[in-house]
Design a protein that fits this description.
Blueprint lengths: L3 E5 L3 H10 L4 E6 L3 E3 L4 H6 L8 E3 H4 L4 E4 L2 E4 L3 E4 L4 E3 L2 E4 L3 E2 L11 H17 L2 E5 L3 H13 L3 E6 L10 H13 L3 E4 L3 E5 L2 E4 L4 E3 L2 E4 L4 E2 L22 E3 L2 E3 L12 H16 L14 E5 L3 E6 L2 E4 L1 H19 L1
Parallel strand pairs: 1-2, 1-9, 2-5, 9-20, 11-12, 11-17, 12-13
Antiparallel strand pairs: 3-4, 6-7, 7-8, 10-18, 14-15, 15-16, 19-20, 21-22, 22-23
Helix pairs in contact: 1-7
The structure holds flavin-adenine dinucleotide.
């Protein structure tokens, strides 16, 4: 009798693990949503909503030999997963791959893909009708969405960022390129300034500036989805603590955005960690360690430009832009195969 494996979360990490192990274990994937979404493609979809079909795939369409449950996990204990509807599921092995949340509509917990499409579409209409847009946060997400918008529409865009340089976790060269790109396209940058509150349509910053804008897009940090995990397994920021084999305890593994691993939270990282979890589940007598790494970063800047950064090398222009599309295509095809 194959062991019962429950995977919580059908993002980059969880979907890979469930798909890979579905013929060796009795796999159940539990996700709040009924679909996998290629998150890096969502910013483009806000500007080109028809694109959303290309970045989603229903779990049931690639997990043909697994049990898929669309529900939220409320609690886990030694032997059971308790769902929001109070149903209990027993397991032998558990993988926590519940990822992280982000501001709506960039990431959403909506259960059904058609509702998600409608939400993106409405958001797009709002964007189209807005004369001015305020973007809060100048990390990769803030920079990419600003670039997408200015590449398609003529709008007044202000980007407020609390640090003195954009994409500050990247090199200075990459930051400079992003800054020049946005300034050339007419984006007003307010660097070293923090958005603090909104009052009657005016957005206030900590330097006492007030901005009027038709729309605000919040592009600030991630929060781990770990509420269902007992706090003794969490670090002080709510990430799930793991050992070097990505184990939390005897029969629990954790990987992806929700795991306390000292590495940039990326889709590529989540997939690499998933590979380690798959290996360690299959080779539990001789597990391998996960080694956090600096991975290539690909940032797209609208339709025709981008930044690729890897080990100190920075390439800008069309090549990184094409690479980003290829990564998306490759990921979606690999899910379907
Ligand atoms: C706008 C944006 C752009 C990005 N661009 C890039 C990029 O270009 N390159 C890159 O490498 N990375 C990028 N990232 C980061 C990347 O998307 C994440 O690192 C990746 O999604 C993490 O994968 P994951 O499997 O850990 O979790 P997620 O993709 O977050 O998936 C977690 C899943 O768990 C489910 N879930 C959560 N809580 C529960 C619960 N209680 N019960 C049941 N199910 C639950 C969720 O519904 C979700 O399906 C980007 C992120 C954002 C927000």
């Amino acid at each position: 009798m194959p062991k019962r494996l429950i995977v919580i979360g059908g993002g980059f990490a969880g979907s890979k693990i469930a798909k890979k192990l579905q013929n060796s274990f009795h796999v159940t994937l539990i996700d709040r949503k009924n679909y996998f979404e290629f998150t890096p493609g969502i910013l483009k979809s806000i500007v080109y909503p028809n694109k959303v079909d290309n970045i989603q795939i229903l779990h049931k369409n690639y997990l043909r030999n697994s049990n898929v449950i669309v529900e939220s996990v409320k609690k886990i204990n030694d032997s059971e997963v308790i769902l929001e509807n109070n149903k209990k599921l027993e397991y032998d092995l558990l993988v926590i791959a519940s990822g992280s949340r982000y501001n709506k509509p960039i990431k959403d917990m909506l259960a059904v893909s058609s509702v998600r499409k409608e939400e993106i579409s409405k958001y797009h209409e709002k964007l189209k009708d807005s004369g001015s847009v305020l973007i809060v946060g100048g990390g990769i997400v803030g920079v990419e969405i600003a670039a997408e918008i200015v590449s398609r529409y003529r709008k007044k865009i202000v980007l407020v960022h609390s640090y003195s340089r954009l994409i500050r976790r990247n090199s200075r060269e990459a930051s400079r390129y992003a800054r020049k790109f946005l300034e050339r396209k007419g984006v007003k940058l307010m660097l070293g300034e923090r958005f603090v509150s909104e009052k009657e349509g005016y957005f206030m910053t900590d330097r006492g500036n007030s901005l009027k804008s038709d729309m605000i897009i919040l592009c600030t940090g991630i929060t781990p989805n770990s509420e269902f995990v007992d706090s003794k397994f969490l670090d002080d920021k709510g990430f799930v603590s793991v050992d070097e084999n990505l184990k939390v305890r005897d029969n629990w593994f954790c990987c992806g955005d929700t795991a306390a691993i000292d590495e940039e939270k990326t889709a590529q990282g989540a997939e690499k960690q998933a590979d380690t979890v798959i290996y360690n589940i299959l080779n539990h007598e001789k597990m391998r360690k996960y080694a956090p790494q600096k991975r290539p970063v690909v940032i797209s800047l609208g339709k025709y430009s981008g930044i690729l950064e890897y080990k100190g090398l920075v390439i800008t222009g069309m090549i990184p832009r094409i690479m980003k599309s290829i990564i998306e295509l490759k990921t979606m095809i690999s899910k379907k195969l």
